[in-house]
Specification:
- The chain is mainly β and 627 residues long.
- The protein is 6% helix and 30% strand.
- The protein is built from four helices and 45 strands.
- The strands form eleven sheets. Strands 2, 3, 4, 5, 6, 10, 12, 13, 14, 15 and 19 form an eleven-stranded antiparallel beta sheet that branches. Strands 1, 9, 11, 16, 17, 18 and 20 form a seven-stranded antiparallel beta sheet that branches.
- The two termini are 49 Å apart.
């Protein structure tokens, strides 16, 4: 159970914002590169002809999948549809993330391109089975009446057979559900389920579940759900060791057996396979194993618990990341899972475990991520941070904390409407207030005045609605100091550095830009375009080796050339001389290898003018300022 947060003031209206469509079509060469990138499967992406994936194995054993969810791979050898959908914070656009090939692995590169320099969340997880039991963000329930929030899409970066993938990173308040399913077992019908999840990103909150649950998001009594649970909550004390344990959540109880089961010593590997299956009349079985090596341990195979569990009374919803009544104080990371009609044989389960191990899961399953956005720091070196561990909810305090490069909640995206966003929520003034001393917090991004932050030339972040600035009370740099708004006073307590990349301003007040709409591939032209503060491909990072980087690639001279008039483009950052740019006192960007300067041909400031290198001449056509 968890208490609900206090009600938000009634004047909070959602104000949608949209990014203006502005760009020219990409060049034919860049389009070819992007197409080749989509078609290239990368390491480990190809599957052997005739190979069987988990749902093929279960179907062959007579227990077909009625749900198959994964953010990392296909669970049928023939599947070639979407795995999940991401939503981009900068403009609210959504995109389905699919596979590199039928029966293969996620096309994580497409997510990286779509979400570059902005926050993305997972909006939906698609069911690969013919039943189409897709999971969307869970609504409120008996334990937590407010709707849940979406998971940060890039918070759990791993590898599967050498292919980059992202897990579904669950923190308190995150959950997914489908209350209107097809073919999922109900009543006392037999069922099996497994999930692959992190064994390190866990807690003892209720409840990191995947499986069968109530259809009304309420606790309707014992035996109304049957899900796989992985976490450190000891359901039937005493438990052996410190967990985490694979258990069965049967509603109003986590079970490693009919009661306490000291034989279940837990699974604490980086990746854990958890399985629960039952005839739902009299017996159930709990299995667990290391998803990276070895087989399964049968932790329990015996009678169902007494008092309402014999037989079971399943309702047939599917839940991921919470308990049946939306109990959502848990943590976990989900990578794949299925539900079957009928009880799978131990042989089928063993074959599925072997298939899972063959995927070569690797990386940090607990989700120390590639953080999007940049830090916001004060002169004392502290970072603007969200109270807690990357699990900020509405009303969570925004404070100062020692900078931690891997902390998602210290990386903020400066959106087109002036808002600052992390963890899928925005830096907000309590109650949309305007009084001196009003504290700041996280709240759903909705475009109100209390979420606008405009950086001034002295470093302060001005909130125009109140006329006040973001402020560190009394210049206190202690961890946990909650920030506020205060009279703008040009003191160090208000001098925030927003380290999310900056524009390169060129001739005619145009900006250095990448052709296309925030999706540049190798060889994409670098050009001038009207400045758009929200455009990811107009924000460049000046790296310590002298390179200028955006969209994960560097400003590069075509062919690493040195001739006057050679065009510039994007290319993979590789440290060559054609990627070194030195800002000089006359405003030029000098390339030492060629001895030439970045140049606007003919001082043409029209949108789409491709830049070049040219003899340094101190003209207006070579004045580029790094913001």
């Amino acid at each position: 159970m968890r208490s609900s947060p206090p009600a938000r003031p009634a004047d909070r209206g959602a104000v949608p914002h949209a990014r203006l469509w502005h760009r020219l079509a990409m060049s034919i060469g860049a389009v070819v590169v992007l197409i080749l990138g989509v078609l290239t499967t990368g390491p480990g992406a190809a599957r052997a002809a005739g190979s069987q994936e988990p749902c093929d194995i279960y179907a062959s054993a007579g227990t077909p999948c009625v749900a198959a969810h994964s953010t990392v791979r296909a669970l049928y050898a023939s599947y070639n549809g979407p795995l999940y959908q991401v939503r981009r914070a900068s403009d609210g656009a959504t995109m389905d993330v699919g596979l590199t090939s039928a029966g293969g692995y996620t096309n994580a590169d497409s997510q990286d391109v779509f979400c570059v320099q902005t926050a993305c969340t997972i909006n939906k997880v698609y069911d690969q089975s013919p039943q189409h039991n897709d999971l969307t963000i869970e609504g409120g329930g008996g334990a937590a009446p407010n709707p849940d929030v979406a998971a940060n899409a890039n918070a759990a970066h791993i590898l599967v057979n050498g292919s980059k993938a992202y897990g579904l990173y669950v923190g308190p308040g995150v959950g997914y559900r489908d209350d209107n399913t097809t073919a999922v077992p109900v009543g006392g019908q037999p069922q099996g389920a497994y999930m692959v999840a992190s064994g390190t990103h866990v807690n003892n909150g209720c409840c990191f579940d995947y499986g069968n649950a109530e259809t009304n998001n309420q606790d309707t009594g014992n035996g109304r759900m049957e899900s796989v649970y992985i976490g450190t909550g000891c359901g039937q004390s005493p438990c052996a060791g410190s967990g985490p344990w694979v258990q069965a959540d049967l509603e109003n109880g986590l079970y490693t057996g009919a009661g306490s089961n000291l034989g279940n010593t837990g699974n604490n590997s980086e990746f854990v396979t958890g399985m629960v299956k039952s005839n739902n009349q009299s017996t159930f079985e709990v299995e667990g194993g290391n998803s990276q090596s070895g087989g399964l341990s049968i932790w329990y195979n015996g009678s169902l618990p007494p008092n309402g569990y014999t037989p079971m009374s399943l309702e047939g919803a599917i839940v991921l990341g919470t308990g049946g009544d939306n109990s959502n104080s848990d943590m976990g990371t989900f990578f794949e899972g299925v539900m079957t009609a009928g009880v799978p044989s131990d042989a089928a389960d063993a074959a599925v475990q072997a298939n899972i191990v063959a995927q070569n899961y690797s990386g940090n399953s607990g989700g120390r991520p590639q953080s999007s956005g940049g830090t916001i720091t004060l002169p004392g070196g502290q970072c603007v941070d969200v109270l807690g561990d990357d699990a900020g909810r509405d009303l969570t305090q925004v404070n100062l904390w020692s900078c931690q490069p891997n902390a998602i909640d210290q990386h903020w995206t400066h959106n087109s409407d002036g808002s600052l966003e992390t963890l899928g929520r925005c830096l907000d003034i309590d109650g949309d207030g305007t009084a001196v001393g009003t504290k700041v917090e996280l709240w759903d991004c909705n475009g109100v005045g209390g979420q606008k932050w405009i950086q001034q030339s002295n470093g302060s972040l001005l909130n125009p609605q109140s006329g006040l600035c973001l402020d560190d009370p009394s210049g206190n740099t202690s961890n946990g100091t909650q920030l506020q708004i205060y009279t703008c006073n040009n003191t160090p307590a208000q001098q925030f550095s927003v380290n999310g990349g900056g524009t390169v301003n060129g001739p005619g007040n145009q900006c250095v830009d990448v052709a296309g709409d925030d999706n540049g591939g190798n060889l994409t032209h670098v050009q001038l375009w009207d400045c758009q503060p929200y455009a990811a491909d107009q924000h460049w990072y000046h790296n310590t080796n002298g390179s200028l980087e955006t969209l994960g690639r560097c400003l590069d001279i075509d062919g690493n050339g040195t001739a006057v008039g050679t065009k510039v483009e994007l290319y993979d950052c590789n440290g060559v001389g054609g990627q070194v740019w030195q800002a000089r006192s006359d405003g030029s960007l000098f390339n030492p290898q060629s001895g030439l300067c970045l140049d606007d041909p003919g001082d043409n400031t029209a949108n789409g003018t491709q830049l070049q290198i040219y003899t340094c001449n101190q003209s207006a056509a070579q004045k580029f300022s790094l913001e």
